[in-house]
Structure formats: structure tokens, C-alpha cells
Amino acid sequence: MFEIQWGAPITLYSAHNCVAERFSTIEKARHWLRRNWPIVDDARHAALEKIDSAMDCMSPVKEARSAFVAAALSAGFVPDRAS
Fold first, then answer.
1. pTM, two decimal places
2. Is residue 71 part of a domain?
3. Nearest C-alpha neighbor of 4 from the set 65, 48, 68, 82
């Protein structure tokens, strides 16, 4: 199995404990959204849909990346400025 790179890594910081997590592949983002995400909301659901679609080559990876960042903001994460 190969991993899908989605450009520059996205680093998210937890607003509560300043722990950072780096996402450089769509697979890691998908895993986190499914297993480690702190809230279940519409933004998380939309990000999972976009990621699944991109992994099936049905939509651009760029859209999945944008949806993931939107879900991160909705969940209270602070993305690195470079993300």
C-alpha cells in the first residue's frame, strides 16, 4: 500500500496542552479523524467524506486537505502558520 502525500505537512497544536501533531499523509489525517478526534461535528464528517473521496480518486487531495484544516479549526486545534 502506498501513502498519498498532500503537500506540505500540516502541524496542529492542541489549544489546551500545546501538544503538536504533524500530518503529512491523507491516511494519517483519516486515522486521526476516525480514532483520535476530540469532537464529532459536521466539519469532521465533511472532512472524512472529502478524504474518502480523494483516496478513491474521485476528488482532489487539495479539497480533502482544506476540509481537514476546517475540521481542525472547528475542533479547537491551532494549525501552524505554514499549513
1. 0.90
2. yes
3. 65
